[in-house]
Amino acid sequence: MEIQDWKSMAGMAGVYRKARELGLETNIAELETFGFTVIEPEKTGAPAGFAQRLLDKVMEIARQEDDLAVELNKHSDAEKPAYGRQLFHLLERDPVFVEALMNPAVRTMGSYMMGLSYRLFSMVAFVKEGSARSTHMHTDSVGVPTPLPAYGAVCNVSWILTDYTPENGTLGMVPGSHRNCRHPTEFEQPKFIGGGMDDSMVTPVMAKPGSLAVFTGNTWHCTYPKTSDGVRAHIATAFCRNYMNPAESYDDMPDALIAPHGPELARLLGRNAWQGYRAEGPKLENMALVRAAYQSQYG
User: Fold this and answer.
1) How would you list the strands of the sheet with 119-129, edge to edge?
2) Which of 19, 134, 155, 162 is the Cys-Cys partner for 24 at CB 3.0 to 4.6 Å?
3) Which long-range contacts (CB under 8 A, 24 or more apart) does 198-202 make?
4) Which CATH architecture is the domain 7-298 placed in?
5) pLDDT reported for residue 292
């Protein structure tokens, strides 16, 4: 079918044309049906060795950063949700993270799920070394009360940096759970027997380094217990709808880092956001920039 610029689609036809160009139509179908999908490395359009570059930089930061510098890492081992490290606010730390954000497949899936005015919510690296227990079942719609909006308020596009298998503590998804439009209850948490997961609802995400694991903010997910040695790592790039308050602030990100990537990166970071005005009212030019930046990207 020829995809035209139908006025009723408010520009989303351009997003779908981009998805078709990148070969992501099947992934969109899986996302709609199951609430998650895996984009294989060869479909991301990333250069050879990109996942290794990301992993090397993540591990360099992990080695240099005091693990207690992050508030979530200060709990005792018994209280830690997943026995892992979380590295926040990556975008300014190295250009490779900007490259990861601006990847066409990443942005296409983000704009498809969150609409044309989508914003960057956060960019967090998750690192586990050695054995690790499971993360509890949850959604990424943090702070959004039940019932969750069916169209989703946030989404997750994660760069997988190591082999993701059950033994390596991969993500566990509940297919179709995005249609429940609510958070899982304590009663619905997976059970664990002999160090493994015993829950017929959960399916493991099987992914190679360089893949993208994509899922909606309504999709129920957890992690499998990590029983292998070595490193397990991914970078979760979360996007949100324009009206959401992003988790990370990029107000002080230098203009010199943003300018080379054009108006789209500035818009993703909220540099031209129309919200936050006082008595003077919103800047109409900033409201217009939301659509103008999109049109410059997709035409």
Assistant:
1) 36-39, 212-216, 154-160, 231-240, 119-129, 85-87
2) 19
3) 199/172, 201/174, 202/137, 202/172, 202/173, 202/174
4) Sandwich (2.60)
5) 63
